[in-house]
Amino acid sequence: MPVATPTPPVLRAIPPVRYRRMPSALMPEPIIPERVMLPQAGVHSVFELRVASDDATASDAYAVRWQVYCHELGYEPADRFPDGREWDAADARSVQVVAYHRPSGRPAGCFRLLLADPVECTAPFHLEEVCTRLVSGALPSEGERRLGCAEISRFCILGAFRRFDAATEAPPWGIDPGTWAAEAIHRRGLAGLMWLAAARLAVSLRLDYLLALMEPRLQLLSRTLGFSFEEIGQPVEFRGTRMPYRIDRRAMRALLAVPSTAALLAPMTAALEDQARRHPLLATYFEARSEMICRG
What we know:
Layout: E1 47-51, H1 55-72, E2 94-101, E3 106-115, H2 126-130, E4 149-157, H3 159-162, H4 177-182, H5 184-204, E5 209-214, H6 216-224, E6 230-231, E7 236-237, E8 241-248, H7 249-257, H8 259-277, H9 283-295
Parallel strand pairs: 4-5
Antiparallel strand pairs: 1-2, 2-3, 3-4, 5-8, 6-8, 7-8
C-alpha cells in the first residue's frame, strides 16, 4: 500500500536577502563561440516558459517530475508520491520553472533553481551532497556569499517531447499528427530554451554562480548554446556518470548579450521577470537589485 506523504511545499517568503556580490572583474574573461546553435525563433509559438509564482504552476512542475523521474526513468519510487507529484525538501527553497506546450496548454518540461538558504547559509546544495570533494574555492563554503549561488536541477522533459521522430511516435493528448510533425523542429529546441531561461533568471537576480550536476550529454548541449561551464570536481556515479559544474555571472551576461541569443529570448524576457518578481522567494533579490541600481 502506498505510504501517504505530506503535500508539496507551498510558496513562502524568505527574510530579506542582502549579500555582497563578487565583482565581475574578478571572474575570468568569458569565451563565447562565434557560432552557437540556438532553437528556431518559432519555438515561442509552441512553448511558453513560466516562473511558478503560484502554487498551481508549481504543482504542474511536480507532476512533470513525477512522470519523468518516477514513471519514465525510475529515479524515485512512484509509491512515495501517491498524488502523482514528485518533490523533496529542497523545493522549500527552490523556484520552479515550467515549460508549457501552447497548443494543448499542458506542461511538457520543467527545472528548478535551488537557492541558498538565507536562514542557514551553510545548508548544502544538492551538488555538494553528491560531490563531497569539490575543487577548493569552487563556491563559498559559508557566509553571505553563498546567497550569490543557485543550482539548476530537476531538469526534465516529458518523454514524448524528448523524441522527434513524428513518423513512429503517436502524438500525446490527442494532438493532430500533422501539427505534431510540424512541431518536431521546435521540440528539438525546448531543452535549449530552458537552459537559456535559467541563465536569464540568474542574471536578473544578479547571482554570482549557477551550479549544475550534469551528465556529459547535457554539458555538450549547453556548450552548443554558448555556455562556458567549468568543471569544479571529479566525476561521480549518481544515476549514471555526473560531473559538477559552475558558470559565473560574467559568462552568462556575455552569452545573453550575443545578438542572436538576445533576439531569441526577447519575446519572453519581460514575462519571465514579471513572474519572478511575484515569486515570494525572489522578492528580496529584486529589492536588493533595485537599491543597488538607485545608488548607482
